[in-house]
Write a structure and sequence with these properties.
Layout: H1 10-15, H2 29-42, H3 74-88, H4 93-110, H5 129-142
Helix pairs in contact: 2-3, 3-4
Length: 143
């Protein structure tokens, strides 16, 4: 996974043996937050328009930047988000915005391709077995 903008505590944590029960120390929360956002934005599709992080789905959207499995893939983005939350204790507006955006992205990644445009609006369409099968295939491909 691309390391552009990655918070500077991630690499030392990785090199120290990935001690999941010992998150890295984050002395400067604002600097960490800015780095986390830079890293997150670097992995977004171009149609989300970087800083705007648009949430309008597009036909044939591309999520390849985030469809990276394994311990160095999207997992690290999520884990580093949890470190941020743990470091600040009480959720700030900034981290709540990050959590909402990550949640929305996961909704898009898990949506069947033919329903991705409807994920944020109510639908009367029933999911058939074929649609569910495509959703599972898409999830497995991304993870």
């Amino acid at each position: 996974m691309e390391t552009t903008g990655r918070p500077n505590v991630v690499a030392p944590w990785l090199k120290s043996g990935r001690k999941y029960d010992t998150p890295p120390n984050i002395p400067d929360h604002a600097k960490y937050a800015a780095a986390w956002w830079t890293w997150w934005i670097a992995h977004q599709p171009k149609w989300r328009e970087a800083q705007k992080l648009l949430q309008d789905t597009h036909k044939g959207e591309e999520w390849s930047q985030l469809c990276r499995g394994g311990s160095n893939g999207i997992f690290m983005l999520i884990l580093s988000l949890s470190w941020w939350l743990g470091a600040i204790g009480e959720p700030s507006n900034d981290i709540l915005k990050a959590i909402r955006d990550v949640s929305w992205v996961f909704d898009q990644l898990l949506a069947p391709p033919d329903l991705a445009d409807e994920i944020t609006k109510p639908s009367k369409r029933n999911l058939g077995e074929q649609s569910i099968g495509r959703a599972i295939k898409r999830l497995v491909t991304c993870l």
